[in-house]
């Protein structure tokens, strides 16, 4: 599917207008079916305004996700679910500050403020999410010595959350990813979903990024290279 920004950059405004009837209207016609699932990633209090790792404008994804979720029979939600003193917290690394990096046995790790600690209000899903038909919550990052951005695999690249098996058991073929944050948990989820063989869409206006040291641009580039499709929520048909 062509991305509006790609079309605009390549062809210019006048060409875009000429193509609108055949391209843009065709783009706004994705109708989720029983083989489609929406993955709502980490819309938790710690990542919302007032949280310890608040993502700028993070609260704005909630109404978009709520509306979009009505189009999906299958919805899975995720939660960061860290132990106290988790290895990804800057507070456990002497002399280190949030957003610095360290080398760990599984690779380079960005260090974060303490966040989404098990059982705390910060780890709770936003009270404004309204998706009563969501059938599964995947908790990740609960192993103290390894982080887990992706809903599919922990940061060691081999420890599975079980999500791929669940989706395949439900005969899901394509997944739509939304939530927080674009350049970390959303992107890693999308990339691992591609590796697992799913057709993958990231809903840009239903996500927000952290963007530390160019991470947002890199995430979009990595996703594009992997064949992840970048869409808007308006491209999804909601209702009959």
From TrEMBL:
Q: Which Gene3D superfamilies match?
A: Isochorismatase-like
Look up the EC number in the record and give it. Answer: 3.5.1.19
GO biological process terms on file: pyridine nucleotide biosynthetic process
**Protein name per its UniProtKB record:** Nicotinamidase
Signal peptide residues are: 1-26
The text of the family note is: Belongs to the isochorismatase family.
Under PANTHER family, the record lists: LD05707P, PYRAZINAMIDASE/NICOTINAMIDASE
Q: Which CDD domains match?
A: nicotinamidase (cd01011)
> Which pathway is recorded for this entry?
Cofactor biosynthesis; nicotinate biosynthesis; nicotinate from nicotinamide: step 1/1
InterPro entries, alphabetized: Isochorismatase-like_dom (IPR000868), Isochorismatase-like_sf (IPR036380), Isochorismatase_Nicotinamidase (IPR052347), TAT_signal (IPR006311)
Domain Isochorismatase-like, residue spans: 36-234
Organism classification: Bacteria, Pseudomonadati, Pseudomonadota, Alphaproteobacteria, Hyphomicrobiales
Could you tell me which species this protein originates from?
Answer: Bradyrhizobium niftali
Q: What general EC class does the enzyme of this chain belong to?
A: hydrolase
């Amino acid at each position: 599917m062509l991305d509006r920004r790609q079309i605009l950059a390549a062809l210019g405004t006048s060409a875009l207008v000429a193509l609108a009837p055949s391209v843009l209207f065709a783009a706004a016609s994705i109708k989720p079916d029983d083989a489609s699932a929406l993955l709502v990633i980490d819309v938790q209090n710690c990542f919302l305004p007032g949280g310890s790792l608040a993502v700028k404008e993070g609260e704005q994804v909630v109404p978009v996700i709520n509306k979009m979720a009505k189009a999906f029979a299958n919805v899975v939600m995720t939660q960061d679910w860290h132990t106290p003193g988790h290895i990804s917290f800057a507070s456990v690394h002497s002399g280190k500050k949030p957003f610095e990096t360290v080398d760990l046995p599984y690779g380079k790790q960005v260090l974060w403020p303490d966040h989404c600690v098990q059982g705390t209000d910060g780890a709770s899903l936003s009270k404004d999410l309204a998706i009563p038909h969501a059938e599964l919550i995947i908790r990740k990052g609960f192993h103290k010595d390894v982080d887990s951005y992706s809903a599919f695999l922990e940061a060691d690249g081999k420890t599975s959350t079980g999500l791929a098996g669940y989706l395949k058991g439900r005969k899901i073929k394509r997944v739509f990813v939304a939530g927080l944050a674009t350049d970390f948990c959303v992107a890693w989820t999308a990339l691992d979903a591609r590796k697992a063989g799913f057709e993958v869409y990231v809903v840009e206006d239903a996500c927000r990024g952290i963007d530390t040291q160019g991470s947002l641009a890199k995430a979009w580039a990595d996703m594009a290279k992997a064949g992840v499709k970048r869409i808007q929520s308006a491209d999804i048909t909601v209702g009959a």
